[in-house]
Design goal:
- The chain is α/β, with parallel strands linked by helices.
- It folds into two domains: 220 residues, Alpha/Beta hydrolase fold, catalytic domain (Rossmann fold, 3-Layer(aba) Sandwich), CATH 3.40.50.1820; 57 residues, no CATH class.
- It is built from nine helices and ten strands.
- Strands 1, 2, 3, 4, 5, 6, 7, 8, 9 and 10 form a ten-stranded mixed beta sheet that branches.
- Helix 8 links the parallel strand 9 and strand 10.
- The termini are far apart.
Length: 308
């Protein structure tokens, strides 16, 4: 049986962040005439535009089935490669003359706080393209980035935020690999940072996937700025999350392999901390990738957006 051939219509776009980092993106759905296009005809305009923030070591090519469904409903979607795309990638800056001078990025080397500049760039592009109402949609670690951006920028310029499968990375790895192993790796990472080697990769015998010392500590320590969804720490005040005043939609996967507790309990944790600002839902019989639940996810997003 031959595999089904799938092709999705979109525009390739180039985003320049305020700090002059060059990011690639894809624009799905209705596009303003301000976007230069080789296609004929006048593109339709969209009242609403989604900025899609992908997860750890993922890329703009992830979750395109959901993006396509949203685009068919008249919602524009800007998916883009943030500095954490793929395992290891090169951070390209405007005006660079020597590739050798570039910094390494990707999931192994990214600096979490720089996600603010990435999202600033994507939102700026959407505004220049004529977007009227902008929403952030984060998946996995893209959820932490979306919330952190909203915390640093006070949510200015966006209508709301959707969190798809928001998990605590620290709690997930404790659940999957055990606290003893995580603590051991944290000790190694801290030693590297103290010795001025924060971007040195952890030895492969300690951690199979490539990850540098500062990135490991950012992801897998309970006091990191990245530990925003602190449902595994009952006494911790999730002040970054609670500072968000924009409407939030939280969609959890019933069979999320990175969850250390049921999706229902995590949904309750969000509801108790955020009250009326949040709507939460659980997609049955899907894992962290949400594969198989794309139609339901799209429906929940569209219904939530219409109510705002």
């Amino acid at each position: 049986m031959k595999a089904k051939l799938e092709m999705r219509a979109c525009h390739h776009v180039e985003i320049i962040t305020p700090k002059k980092v060059r990011l690639n993106g894809l624009w799905f759905g209705p596009a303003s005439t301000r976007i230069r296009s080789s296609t004929r005809g006048r593109p339709r305009k969209s009242k609403r535009t989604i900025i899609w923030v992908h997860g750890l070591a993922s890329s703009m090519f992830s979750k395109q089935r959901i993006m396509e469904r949203l685009a068919k409903k008249g919602i524009a979607v800007l998916a883009f490669n943030n500095r954490g795309h793929d395992a290891i990638s090169r951070i390209a800056k405007v005006g660079e003359k020597r590739i050798a001078k570039s910094r390494w990025g990707g999931g192994a080397h990214e600096i979490f706080a720089e996600c603010v500049d990435d999202i600033d760039g994507a939102i700026g592009f959407a505004r220049r393209a004529g977007a009227k109402e902008i929403f952030l949609v984060g998946h996995s670690t893209g959820c932490q980035k979306s919330i952190y951006w909203a915390y640093k920028r006070k949510g200015r310029g966006i209508k709301g935020i959707v969190l798809l499968a928001p998990m605590s990375d620290w709690a997930a790895e404790i659940h999957l690999k055990g606290k003893k192993r995580i603590d051991k790796n944290n000790a190694v990472a801290r030693a590297l940072v103290r010795n001025g080697r924060k971007h040195e990769l952890l030895p492969q015998k300690l951690w199979p996937g490539p990850i540098d010392a500062q990135r490991f500590l950012s992801l897998y320590t309970p006091d990191s700025i990245e530990e925003i969804f602190s449902y595994a720490q009952p006494k911790k005040n999730p002040r970054v999350l609670r500072s968000i005043q924009k409407p939030l939609l939280v969609i959890l996967a019933e069979k999320d392999e990175f969850a250390d507790r049921s999706a229902g309990r995590i949904a309750d944790w969000f509801a108790r901390r955020l009250g009326k600002r949040i709507q939460a839902g659980v997609i049955a019989d899907v894992s962290h990738s949400l594969k198989g639940g794309e139609t339901k996810v799209t429906s929940l997003i569209l219904h939530w957006m219409r109510r705002l």
